Amino acid sequence: MLYGHYKRKKRLDRLRSREIRVQNRIDRLRKDIKECNVDLEDTIKAIDYSKDAIQNNLVTSNIEAELERAVDRIFKEIEINIREKYKTKAKINNLEKQIEDVELLLEDLLEEEKQIIELRYAEKLSDKAIGTMLNMSRTTAQRRRTEIIYELMNKVRD
After folding, report:
1. Which fold has domain 109-158?
2. pTM of this prediction?
3. Domain residues of the chain, as ranges?
4. Where in the numbering of this chain does the RNA polymerase sigma-70 region domain appear (predicted)?
């Protein structure tokens, strides 16, 4: 649970960054539509003056048709990005809930106990390294960590 907690915290930061990048893409695409910043294909070579094209009442120029296709592509891209943004937001909300649940358990710990947990599960240090940093023996660090884990397990059960 604790290893996963610190992994979730790192993943949450990455997801928030991803959400910002997706929103920037959406804003850029909307700006492209608003400013008509659209690249037309090279297929537009000449104007069609054929008799069939002129007599038809539903005639749209090649430029209009190509512009419409380009704008449709941008709309589809915006739609895809909006879906991605909502999926990312849902993941962020889920992770925040999980992190909050564990944080509630950890907030009742003493400062030294929090430090032992963070060194072990966030920094992934050994009991010997933790003992050295906190001026205690390896066995004391290991015993304290085990006691903390049992204490947390009892809180989860209640």
Report:
1. Arc Repressor Mutant, subunit A (1.10.10)
2. 0.70
3. 1-107, 109-158
4. 105-145
